[in-house]
Amino acid sequence: MILGPRAVWQIAAGQSSRTGADVFTQHGVALLAPGDAGPWSTDRPDEDFDGAFVRRFATEVRSGDAILLRVGSTTIRAVGVIASEYQYLDIFDDVNGMDMQHARRARWGELPEDYDFVEPVFGGPPRRFGQVAQETVLDFAQRFLNSPPISWQEAMLPPLPAEEPALGDQQLPERIRVIVAQARDLQQLYSDGQRFGLHPTEDEMIAHFIVPLLLSLGWRPELIGVKWRNIDVALFGSLPRTPESCRIVFEAKRLGVGAEGALAQAIGYVQDLGLRADVVVTDGFRYRRYARETGFAPSAYANHVRLKRQALALFTGMSCV
Q1: What pLDDT shows up at residue 192?
Q2: Torsion of Cα atoms, 222 then 227 then 233 then 235, to 10°
Q3: Domain ranges of the chain
Q4: What fold, for 169-318?
Q5: Of 87, 100, 84, 108, which is closest to residue 28 (Cα–Cα)?
Q6: What is 8-154's CATH topology?
Q7: How far apart are CA 161 and CA 268, in angstroms?
Q8: What's the DSSP call for residue 317?
């Protein structure tokens, strides 16, 4: 493909601390939030979608346009080619906690490593989505797309993830229903800066949600270590509370920051202390577990606000047996 007069766009894969970039490249999609308001259509005002971004994404982008996958204010991870019209895909209602159902299929060419333009070439602060006009960026995109190999630009698109059914309240273990209901009740309040103020701190989420969840899953207080050796929460299989008896390490982040960004920190604790423990990163509402035996690959996930069937595996795996 020789890049001619087609437009070049940039799209953010979420915040730098909770990027969904891997979802974009793995499934061949470009995704945009907010999606919970439903599909875009010509009779819907921009206000429904927090601005004009979704409308422009749905109406101005063309198949064959180039698109840059941005993972920071000046950094990109991949260059892509748009491969479909606008779609609304409900399967992407929870991308690391982000509602990113507005979609287009895209073929991505990942860079060998993230490329930082250093200067604010996407604006300051950059928009979540927009057309690129800066010559430095246009030249980068053109050179990348015209450099061999270019076969990826016409390759078969990867499959979309399977639709996952929602988890009804009656399917939840009864002992955790109160915790889940409380999270749903407070989620909107915590996100409303005018009514609530600043997001609750990590320590608040540990006190109000993480420890109560663990107690409801059968863990005795003496087996739940809070701020044990600088770890936010540590679960122990038995007493005394030593590195040898530690089973799960929790690293908490405040709401809105992105719990997944804490994985490296949590793994560092495990390695520094010589623990044989899995890792869970959480903001109190979302929990993602990483298994030590598989090199800390993701193994289970639950979002109290948007529960799906896979959450049962996380609750079962975190129960005290």
Answers
A1: 87
A2: -40
A3: 8-154, 169-318
A4: tt1808, chain A (3.90.1570)
A5: 108
A6: ph1033 like fold (3.10.590)
A7: 31
A8: H
